Amino acid sequence: MQFYSTQNPAHRVGLKEAVIQGLAPDQGLYMPVEIPTLPADFFQRLPSLSFAEIGQEVIGALFGDSLSEAEIRELVEHTLQFDAPLVEVEPGIYSLELFHGPTLAFKDFGARFCSKLMALLLAGESRKVRVLVATSGDTGSAVANGFYRTPGVEVVVLYPRGKVSVLQEKQFTTLGENIVALEVDGVFDDCQRLVKEAFLDAELREQMLLTSANSINVARWIPQALYYFRAFAQLPQPVGDVAFSVPSGNFGNLAAGILAARMGLPIRYFVAATNVNKVVPDFLNGADFQQVPSVQTISNSMDVGNPSNFSRLLALYGGDEKALRAQVKGFYFDDPETAPFHAAGASGAGLYAGSTWCSRLYGGEKLHQNPIGSLPRCLFRDGPSGEISGCGGRNLRLGAGAAGALGSISFRGEKGGPSWQRFCGF
């Protein structure tokens, strides 16, 4: 598979270069030159396929010209050692549980895929690889644990002081060995800027082999598409129109869902659900895209003021902003809407019961007018960030329109404890 830079489509590299470079020399993100469409019989068989079988067919279609069948099987089996169950939380609303990995975060899928793929691509390399990763919480945890004790790889995690939850900070600062954590006096965007500057430092890159494990790296970004297929496979058959509500910070998760749609998965709408770091929802609602300093919130994993994957969103629609806005709807939610349930979570009711989703379902609704109507929704659940995704799905359903009845799925990526349904009023 060939990849091009979002900054310069003429700049093309192979899979190994895209993964090891992480970021293109012109600061663009790598995108597949061609996105394969999966055959019709794959979708007919999808409900009967296991997660691993789905992974082998999807990754085979993408990387089959770069990896052997045995390597793809090894890669998928290493990545998908835990499932992503789909749970119906009320009629037409489903939650995809992505918290069954080792750090309870949805990024465990991408981190494990990335570490194994790098190991396969770097077999025989004599130089040590240094993986630089900026985090506002769950990325650092997932990447550190995914690469822990991987031979020939050192991971350096940069995180903003005082802006990462205590649990997540301990998940990547207490491992030692090949995992190094650096606390930065700033915000997530500062950490991300430092990582990008390191990649663009020619002298530094001559001295050491640097790469990234943030979602800017195709090896972290692409495998996130797999659980969209897994979610769809678990919906009641026959499946009608479906919308996915996605908690969004750096927007790799949403971009992966659109990638799945480009491969043929019949998704009608997406919801980009954020906290008050809302540059993308503002854009989706008609404003010009303009990066801003990030604002600290209690959903800290989503505190991103300049999301890197925005360029991928545009690339997936061929630069057509109108088409992007037509399929992706944007909503944002602030801390006061979340605070009552965040307090409930802190009291022990659930690990991440502090929930924008919960507070929005439980309290007053702001009804957003949109053309979608009442859709079955798939809601990604990811602690406070995933509850925001549920809020987006809820607003999607409440929006007035004439699109008919659709299903919706949300993603739940950090375990909220057994009481989360009670807090949501289910």
What does this structure look like?
It comes from Nitritalea halalkaliphila LW7. Its cofactor is pyridoxal 5'-phosphate. Keywords: Amino-acid biosynthesis, Lyase, Pyridoxal phosphate, Threonine biosynthesis. It is an enzyme of class 4 (lyase). This protein is globular. The chain has a domain at 222-423: Rossmann fold (3-Layer(aba) Sandwich), CATH 3.40.50. The chain is of the alpha/beta class and 426 residues long. The N and C termini lie far apart (45 Å). The strands form 3 sheets. Strands 4, 5, 10, 11, 12, 13 and 14 form a 7-stranded mixed beta sheet that branches. It contains 19 helices and 14 strands.
Report strand %.
Answer: 15-25%
Instruction: Note the gap between the termini.
Output: 45 Å
Radius of gyration: 20 Å
- Outline the low-pLDDT stretches: 344-376, 397-405, 415-426
Label the CATH architecture of the domain at 222-423: 3-Layer(aba) Sandwich
Overall shape? globular
Structural class assignment: alpha/beta
Indicate the CATH class of the domain at 222-423.
Answer: Alpha Beta
Average pLDDT reading: 82
| Count of DSSP H/I helices | 19
Number of strands: 14
CATH topology grouping of the domain at 222-423:
Rossmann fold
Largest sheet: 7 strands, mixed
Share of helix, binned: 40-55%
GO molecular function: pyridoxal phosphate binding; threonine synthase activity
Protein name: Threonine synthase
Domain Tryptophan synthase beta chain-like PALP: 96-315
Modified residues (N6-(pyridoxal phosphate)lysine): 107
